[in-house]
Amino acid sequence: MTDDIDYEIDASDLPKRAERRPLGSPSVVVDDVHITYRVFGARRGGTAQTKTPLLNRAINVGRPDTGPITEVRAVRGVSFVAHHGESIGIVGTNGSGKSTLLRAIAGLHPPTKGRVFVSGEPALLGVNAALLPRLTGERNITVGGLALGLSAREVRERTAAVAEFAELGDFLYLPMSSYSSGMGSRLRFAISTMQTPDILMIDEALATGDASFRKKSTARIEEIRDSAGTVFFVSHSLGSVRAMCTRVLWLDKGVLVADGDVDEVCDAYDDFVKGRTNASAGAKLR
Amino acid sequence: MADPKPGVTVASRLTSAEAEALALQSGLREMGVRPPFAHYVRGVWSRRSFIWNLASSRAYVRNQGSYLGQAWTVLRPILDAATMIIIFGFIFHSSAPGIENRAAFILIGSFAYTLFQQIVMAGIGSIQGDLQLIRSHQFPRAVVPLAAVMTDAVLFGPIMVAMVILVVLTGFLPDMGGPVMPHWSWLLLPVAAALLTMFSAGGALFFARIGARTPDIANVVPFLLSLGRFASGATFSIAGLTGAHSWFRPLVLHQPVQIYLELFRSVFGNEPNVPMTGALWLQAIAWAVGIFAVGFLFFWGAEETYGRD
Q: Do B235 and B84 contact (CB within 8 A), yes or no?
């Protein structure tokens, strides 16, 4: 999961407002997708009363301190169609299922129910790509590039460029566990932008690193956005959503509550969040 | 459920049938479904350098965080074997009738069985352990258990060298049948290890699927593996100790792990009673190919579910 921190981006760092391109053919079709997590134990005294199935109660005899296996329904019945040439923002309060939905579209988290159709290979650009903390930055670039599906030769050719982009200097040859958190996320960003995909998904990646790196990463994202067919963008910064996107999906507790023009939905969402102090509080399980 | 929000629009929803028709019409591919088998095999093969890199990186970091570091890779199986030699080689004096060098017999069995055990255990936890990787990149999931298998296979390299040296040293122990002479067949040791690795990889893939959904299996399999250690005669001669007419004798003598241990011992060529035969090699190859294929197919059968929780 991403750290859901409300990063507000400086106005100077915002990318150019995305121009509206004519809509192409459909690139992503999402049909009634549900995603449910299983959580083992650790639930007692929730606010929602549930009837526990006998089997669950039998399984839980061995651990009296924790509750039953709890199902968390992160995404509940989302459907939409995206087209080539669209930049789609996904907004919603913390825990509303934005990142989970994105992962489902990228094929990384299989939906419990429903179907996802895409064109080409979607790529999720995130600052939370898995890296091996005890290995050097250089080794992580190799493993990360191969995980992205590049060939060993392509990875070798691009390693120097990635290292330069991440601005690690001699830290490149030290284990990642010795990196500051900013250095780590710079390296992750550099690794995940090694290739340009057809469908690009960006998960809070704009908020990486210090001001100078942010400028650089914004430029890189714009470059990718211009060549990618469809862009999905998850962010808590409405400023960047307005700048990057032409259409916005608003998720609330896993349900798609709004899907429409960027300004219309952003205004409504803004009113909603400002109107209440507990917008993200009180998610009930089941 | 979410509360209705005032003043916002939701674009009209398609029904499932309409969505499917639209997707087909625009030539879209469904995500999160199992690819055809041939396609899947090609996908795994094209990721071989990923498997290799992941495995060698993991092997490198395996024993960091202790003073002796990588030396533990070799020391652990040696200590394991030493324990077994003390008990079954010296205390139980007749644990291997017909075997001259009991110490070498136990050493080889113990090392070879440890390879099998390590690989199967590595497979069980592999999907759960690499959930983060699985959830951030799209690739054939068999890469993950195969990389775990490869890690232990790589680490078996130095272990094998230690095994050869120790077998030679056992020749100097008292009452063990005299010195062990180098033999041309020692060159076949890596081949035997490769076959056992392939066989164990089938088991690792099989249990990787079960362990992905039911982590509890990781608590059960160690018991099966320690039963297997004794049922394969890793530390004593199972052919010499089971009753000649007991109903389970053919069962334990022809089960695959016992065959691999026999193969390892025959490769060393120092025991007249454990000859290397063509039949032994054929059985070892057949089991390796068969079990690997079964494990791979079984793992592929749930490809679309890995990463779901």
A: yes
